[in-house]
Amino acid sequence: MRKTELFLLICILLLLAGCWDERLLKNSRTVYLSGFDLNENGDYQITSIIRDMNISESSRGEISILNELVTGKGSSIKEASMTIDRSVPGNYDPAKGRALILGIDVAKGDIYNVLDAFYRDPRVDLNAKIAVTDNSANELIAHLSENEVEKGEYLYELIHSSEINSEIQNITLRSIRTYLFDEGKDFMLPYLSKDEAENEVIINGVALFHDHSFTGQLLTPAESTLLILFMEKKSKQVLLTEQLDKDANVSVSYNVKSVSRKLKLRKEEKVHADILLELDVEIVDYPPDQLNKQERISFLEIQISKILTEKADNLFKKLAANQSDILGLGREIIAFYPSIWEEIKGENYYEQILVNPKVKVNVRSGGIVL
Amino acid sequence: MKVKGRISSVNLFYVLAQTMIGVGLLALPHHTHHTAGSDGWISILFTGILIQLILLIIWFLCRKFPNLTLFDFSKVILGKMLGTVLNFLYVMYLLTIICYIFIIYTDTLKRWILPETPGWVLLLIFFILLIYGSICTIKNVISLFSFLFLLIPLLFLITFVVYDDPSMDIRYLFPIGHNGGWNILKGTEDAFVSFIGYETLLIYFAFMKRSKSISVLKGAFFTILFVTIFFMYIVIISTMMLSPEEMKITREPVLYILSAVEIRVLSRLDLIFLSFWGLVVFTTIISYSFSASIGISKLIRIKHKFAVMLSGTFALIVSIIFYYMEITLLEEWLKYFSLIFGVIIPIVLLLITIIFKREAASTYEEN
């Protein structure tokens, strides 16, 4: 019995999987950042940064990191990456990219054409962030300052910190697919541009999408923050500043503590969506002070509510002009008013929806002073 | 011939739950979505209720023949000749399921984590594990299963991290029931295959202590309840995470969702889920091959040990043939097979038993 057990064990040992599927780090050329462009004759161009780690034996195993910029062209994304594979020693491995940058031409077309190859590969890091750039992705990646060693992580952190400040919608490679396939929802992506003076890359607002492509309309960070509040998707921190009095240069900054949204839909000639947004805020910067007086607080509440309602009006006009249903009202109608959806459904359903936003602000605290 | 070894209803819970939760789990939301759309979880609920009813039938049948497995009482009910034929068919059915699991399992592993590993190597590993797991008595099976049951709550736990995802949308579940009652009912057809495993009760009931009392039923009842809730949970969570059109093109929604979840030190939770799930599938295979081997050993009067070898070898050869010829018939067949062997035959047997008043005692007079 003991012998047969041993024999079985040895059999299993021999068959241990992994021998076929091992992937040595030294053979693969790991990509941390990729950009996609579309040129005039319909070819895709991939620009990637490959990181090489050299552990030198002479200087006590010191690790030196080299970044290599590679590009490849092809009529599909996979063909383009095969072109790169041929040009670099080792295996070009785009699976672990932390950030994907879409050039403006790609973004204006159907972006799913670019992303499809990623979803078919089980090894892809679906947590990668996606961004749109105002020019070609190639230029932006080349521009990323040379002294930044971890370029992929740099962009990832740049986008991530904006997400924490609720300036952009939290979108990853996985969740973007959900939005792309959802008929009643659109999304927005961070919009990157070069900052010539600082030799850096900055987030210049967000790009509104409709269906599968970029509408061409941008929102400023303040607008997108407001939009995220309307979506009830705020992250840890939401800091907003409003100018109360232009002449006296009085402004107030506040942190939104909690959001509650009431959404009413009614069908008349068009579908009217009345949204009442209630914000509980904490004043973080207000030099005139006097927050110990109740009338002062109500004055602030009324002022901020008015300003935000105006801003929201403008914001929803922009959304309507581009038919970008970031709020997911289409999904709301599908879910709770299926009969209305039957009447308005189609590519341009958002034309049929009129949004009437209203914001109400409650000042809850003023930090550790009154 | 009475079976040896006794199990309690708690043990039955472990065995049955492990048998039922198996290879279908990963693709379940995709399959139910196929016909029932976002109401897939209602189909699961219906199927669960349906299976509770079938459980009652099986119990009524088995309590007439305490401590006898299907392979024994089929001869009592149908006579020696027909009974043997039925036993043979049941053995073939159980072996077919093993082959099906082998193929699906290999296919999933190859697509998700081991693309370069040859299929036959994986099948060979399953074969060895199958033999190792099934050459034993019911007592050993239970101690293995009750230990591995730990993994099922772990699968639960892993799915909790998904709630952090901001793209999760409860509205995907609404409007409830808009796919129409007929489609939801038709969805039960897709969901039914995931529930197979309960028919092993025809064998396991024989091992129960005090098999005539209601407590026997309780164990099986709670298992099916648990499995239904678990499946419903998986379907609901996948429906909330993926938009309807996306679900149609995602083969293993559960893995796909988990592959995007990142927690501090782990960036690929799907791999952890997959390895736990692998063990859970294993218990299913062991349970089936154990039952099939009981049948084989009764059919051709060989020891349990050799019966296990025989069933393992059969499963290995057939699944290698099917795998390399890329025959996908098995899945289609299984839909009908599970209906015939899991529902129709038990009902027919019960009817015959009631009408012709067959009882266990009649066999023992001979001995």
Write the layout of secondary structure elements.
The complex is a heterodimer of chains A (370) and B (367).
Chain A: H1 2-15, E1 28-38, E2 44-55, E3 63-74, H2 77-87, E4 91-93, E5 99-102, H3 104-108, H4 112-119, E6 129-133, H5 137-143, H6 151-164, H7 173-180, E7 188-195, E8 200-210, E9 213-219, H8 221-230, E10 239-245, E11 250-267, E12 271-285, H9 294-322, H10 329-336, H11 338-344, E13 353-365
Helix pairs in contact in A: 10-11
Chain B: H1 9-20, H2 28-36, H3 40-63, H4 70-78, H5 80-112, H6 119-134, H7 138-148, H8 151-160, H9 181-195, H10 201-204, H11 215-241, H12 244-248, H13 253-259, H14 269-299, H15 304-325, H16 329-356, H17 361-364
Helix pairs in contact in B: 1-7, 1-11, 1-14, 2-3, 2-9, 2-11, 3-9, 3-11, 3-16, 4-5, 5-6, 5-14, 5-15, 5-16, 6-14, 6-15, 7-14, 8-14, 13-14, 14-15
InterPro entries (chain B): Spore_GerAB
Organism (chain B): Gracilibacillus halotolerans
Main location (chain B): membrane
Task: Tell me the count of domains of chain A.
Answer: 2
The run of helices and strands of chain B is HHHHHHHHHHHHHHHHH
If you average the pLDDT of chain A, what whole number results? Answer: 84
Q: Give a quick account of the main beta sheet of chain A: strands, pairing sense, barrel closure.
A: 9 strands, mixed
| Biggest interface found | A-B, 34 and 37 residues
% residues in beta strands of chain B: under 5%
Family (chain B): Belongs to the amino acid-polyamine-organocation (APC) superfamily. Spore germination protein (SGP) (TC 2.A.3.9) family.
Membrane topology (chain B): Multi-pass membrane protein
GO biological process, one term (chain B): spore germination
Organism (chain B): Gracilibacillus halotolerans
